[in-house]
Amino acid sequence: MLFWKQAWRRNKGNERRSHYPTGILDIKLYMDHHPHAIIIMSKDGTILRVNRMFESILGFESREVVNRPIFDAPFVPAGEFNHLADHRNKIIGGGSIMTVNIVRITKSGKPVRFIATVYPLLEDKGGNETFIVEYRDISWLSMDEQLLS
């Protein structure tokens, strides 16, 4: 499960470390109890798993998106495929954790704004990496902007 651990060290101040899931059981628990939409994706861009919040927010069931390439996913607007390829290449090239503002489309056709964070998760013995893509819903920001104007 993802959590922050804060430890105090004498003469060194506080230290904060993030603990990301490491084993298959940890990943399942992390995804099932996470408050944001999550995708686990292979290095080549194939969607391997989505969590319940993904299904709830975007309206797509896991069977509709799992084992499909992210470049063919029904929730990604066509105009974002070029940006998606650039972000993927940066991560594969050893780039660090990335956070970007994006729009995804629900099954009903409604656009939803997210902040997406991508980070490497596991590497198996064959060198195949998987990545977690975490979508934080920020559509409430546009509602606040409308109220202020």
From TrEMBL:
Gene3D superfamilies: PAS domain
PROSITE patterns, alphabetized: PAS
Domain PAS: 27-68
Pfam families found in the cross-reference section: PAS_9
Record InterPro entries: PAS, PAS-like_dom_sf
UniProt superkingdom: Bacteria
The protein, known as: PAS domain S-box-containing protein
Naturally occurring in which organism (per UniProt): Paenibacillus phyllosphaerae
Biological classification of the source: Bacteria, Bacillati, Bacillota, Bacilli, Bacillales
